Each structure stands twice: as C-alpha cells, then as structure tokens.
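To: structure subgroup
Subject: Chain for Friday's discussion

All,

I'm putting the inputs and outputs inline so they're searchable in the archive.
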Amino acid sequence: MNNNEAHKLCSELLKITKGSEVKELLKKYNLWEKKEVWREYGDDSQSWSIVGGQGDAEFSLNEKIVNGLDAVLMNKCWESGINPKTDPEKTPQDIKEAIKLYFKDKGTREIASNSVWVSLAGNKTPKHPCVCIADLGEGQTPERMPSTILSLAKGNKEGINFVQGNWNTGGSGAIRHCGKDTIEEDNEPLELSLILSRRNPKIIENFPEQKTEHSHKWSFTVIKRDYRKETGKSHIMCLAPLNADLHPMKGELLRFEKNEMPILPEKQIQCSKTSKYGTLVKLFEYGVDKGMALYLGSSLYTDLQVLLPEAFIPYMFHECRKEKSHNTYVEGFSKYIKRLHQKDTDKYLECDPIKSFITVDSKTISFEVFIFKKDVSVNQYKRNYGLAWTVNGHTHALQKDAIFKADFGKDMASSMFVNLNCDGIEGKSRENLFSPARDRIKSESKLAIKIKEELRRQLRDNSQIEEIERKRNDEEAAKEPEIPEKNILDTIET
C-alpha cells in the first residue's frame, strides 16, 4: 500500500463511528480476512490473558486519558532537551513538580485545550458512543509504535517519576468494551479500535539519533479481538500489512507522509481540527451506558470527574452528538466541587472540605472529606461513590458510600465523599495495595484493612462531622408530629 492509499484509508477510518463500517472498509481494501497482515498485540500470543483482566469500561477509558496526559508531560520534557529515560536526574521528580515547571502561569482552560481531548460521537441515543481520546503529546514513530503504544508489560515509563503509568497494561483493556452495538454471527460483539500517531518533529530535531527513514510519518493500526478455534482462546491483533508477505504476522504498520491530520474535535465533527503531531485512540461503540456526556447525573462526565479527582492536568471533554456541540474541561471532582463551593458557600457543601490524615504502619495518608448539603442531588457530582483511593490525583480504587453506613445514618453516609491520598504509600506496599489494573483494592491486603479501620475511626471521632449529623437529626426530629403523652393507667384494662 503506497503513501496515498494509506492516507486515504486512514482518512476514511477517521470518519467512521461503527465497528461494522470498519470491517466493511477493511474488506474493501482486502485486509480483513488475510491472517498474515495481522500482528499480535505486544507481540505476545498471550495478550488476551493480560487485556481481558483489566478494569471496567470507565476505568479503562480513564487509563487511556491518563496515558495521554503522561504523553503531554513526556513531550514537554523532550522539548526542553531532556531524555526522560537516560537523564532521570534532570527531570521533575514528581508530577506536581512537572506541572509547575511546564505549565506555570497557564490558565486551566488553556492547559486543557493543549493537552488531551475526549470526544463522543455516533448515535444520538445515549448508549455506546464512539469515543476518541486525542493527545497533543510526544507521539511515536512508525518504528517505535509496536514497542510503545502497542506494547504490553514492557515498563516503558519505568523510572520516570513524573508520569503515572508503570505497568504498561491498564489502557489495553479498553478494546474489550468496544463493539457493543455490532453483534457478530457468533452472538459476540465486534471489538475494534483505531490508533493513529506521529512523533513531535521538535523531538526528532532535539534528538537526531531518533531520526529514521520513517520517523517523520504518521502511522496507524486497527486493533481487534480475534477468537481462534484452533487455539481455543482470544487474541488481540493489530493491523500490520507492510512487508507481511515476507514476514507473515510480523509486518509493519501502515504509514504515510502528511504535515497535519484531523485528530481533534471541532463543533459536531469528532476528527476535524488538525494537529502536526500527537496520538489519537478511537474506540468504536464503547460500552459506557450513559446519557449525554455533559449532562449531570449518570453522565460519563460525572464518572470521569470522580476517577481523576485531583487532575493535575485538566483535559477537554467534547460532546458531538447534539444539534449544538458542547465542550468543557475536566478538572477532577475535588477541584470542581471546591470551585463551586467558593462561588456559593451556602449551596453545595455543609462546610469547607475537612482535611486530616491518618498514620498506618509508619505511612502518613492524608484525606479530604466533602459533605454535601442534604437537599443537594449528590448523584450529579459523585453518583453513589463515597471513597476514592488516589495516587497523584488518579483514582486507583472506588468504593460506594455504603461503606460509611455502619458508622453514620443513611442520609449522612450518602452525603459524604472522601478523597484518600495514597501518594505516601510507595514501592512494594503500593503494589500490595492496588491491582495492576489500578481499578480496585486487593481485598486480601492487610494494609487496606488497617487504612479503612483507621479512616472510619477518624471520621467517627471528628467533632465537625458529628455536629453536622447531630444538627440533621435534630432537624428531622423537629419535623415529626408530637404524640401527646398518655397516662400509663389509662392503657390498663380493668
């Protein structure tokens, strides 16, 4: 496939929102049914064993977003002339330092507009939108794509302290949530996604050793879940047809020369605004059964605010499915609620967020308690979640607000949200606390049990929380009609 043909195929894929249309298009190009043009994801025949064990649709999507935010920070580091892998002593030592260094004096919307865009297109019905995650980050060359974006458990970010991804697995789980509206003959969904990327030319300029024959080109692939009867299991495959005749199932990704590609949303078109570099991930018919993205309540926007409560880098959220497009930035639950509270102190929260800390096994863990007013529809802001376990502002586990019902009344428990900052838990302790998918606490973790017990004790003993609950109970009691006292003698039959 020559340059023009590859560009044409990619441009057509960018316009598609349904998995069935992707399949038909690849058939048209004689690519769908040729086994030799498909390459194992991560060059690992056991890819499904890793991918299939990742988190639910919202968590997997959030991992893609976090990967994009990491790419933005990596890009800033490369642009400054520092190789984050070989010169770790010259790089920021944590994400907070990176933000201060790379985004100083920048406004929230400006940062978001130049980082990551999440857009939704497809059917105007609420379910299963086509979701795109586009980042203006470092991007990858055609040669490096298989060992970076398309790799599994390779530790590409290992030793880079200012990014979040370490396991190199979390984002891969998104594929199993695709294709929810396209059911195949075997009564299973057609799970497909698209990845398009180009390395930032400035990085190649700063580091000429990265220059290759194709380093200036865009490259792309389609990813699919392929169940094979001969192996009795699923495989995650990437379209890699170049030179596949010489190296079956070991070919190279499609690539083409183009100064800019439309990877960003604009108005009601998902892939419209161009960029000279970056990465686009397109998830066809993604399994988030939500209403319009920017509606409060059971919206995807609400979920993502909770999954990244302290978003050090905000990102843009764009809804293409309405007659008039909408976009806003996601700053994270904590920042969002604090901003609303500062704007109107009597409307949302009972008081300023309560800050405190606990100490468990010599580890200090800070936390913040948000208590919504009784008449606030909390589903709009936190749904039924009550406790977020976070690292670097990124939720690694979520628990329902029912966790507080043993210590507080139903009304009080449902009003509370606790952001538990686990930045101070590092190394082996962190590994023992969270799953590699970063979507849940390891239930057998002794540390997790101790943390929850100490947190509950602190919340029970907090005088400010106690006073709020007492006040609510008094208000409820005052609403109950008084029952006149009766003389006990009047109730005795004679």
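Points worth raising on Friday:
The first helix runs from residue 3 to 15.
Confidence is low (pLDDT under 50) at residues 488-494.

D.
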